[in-house]
Amino acid sequence: MPRLGSAQLLALLLLVPGPGGASEITFELPDNAKQCFYEDIAQGTKCTLEFQVITGGHYDVDCRLEDPDGKVLYKEMKKQYDSFTFTASKNGTYKFCFSNEFSTFTHKTVYFDFQVGEDPPLFPSENRVSALTQMESACVSIHEALKSVIDYQTHFRLREAQGRSRAEDLNTRVAYWSVGEALILLVVSIGQVFLLKSFFSDKRTTTTRVGS
């Protein structure tokens, strides 16, 4: 997966469809930033947008999808992950944006998969006068199974990356907490020593001798 990092407030990126019209990207979304992506879609095409926040803060982001006329098709605030399927109602350029403008100091890592249309058939039906052979049917079944495997691998990689990020964040917090506890214990110990020392000093100063 190509990985993009940007410190700009607004990045306008044109997606280049991969095989089957799928665009799969992982990118860095800085704090107080917004990134938009554009895709040319023909009328009647079925599309699916799926995204997930991998690292950063509370693992949430704002997402918004608009048609060529600016009509909002999908809008969610502070979502960790989601999936949205729609059918293009007209020809034109569709825009979807991810926003981290509500965060003041935490950047995010966001993954999304934008599927445009259906995958082309493994064996096109044009100029065919007979049904698929047993070998061809087996190839189609294997192809579909491999697609499912790829999808599962992608989701497991995302979960592993998110889990690793959470573990590292937890480890950092535990380390800071341990250092803080050690410092507090040291201060309390020194305070107790001085407190006990002050008790004995008071006794020596208040003790007097009376001569006969």
TrEMBL record:
Subcellular location: Cytoplasmic vesicle, COPI-coated vesicle membrane; Cytoplasmic vesicle, COPII-coated vesicle membrane; Endoplasmic reticulum membrane; Endoplasmic reticulum-Golgi intermediate compartment membrane
Domain GOLD: 34-116
Single Gene Ontology BP annotation: protein transport
Name the record gives this protein: Transmembrane emp24 domain-containing protein 7
Family: Belongs to the EMP24/GP25L family.
Gene3D superfamilies named in the record: GOLD domain
Membrane-topology descriptor: Single-pass type I membrane protein
Keyword ATP-binding attached: no
TM spans (from-to): 174-196
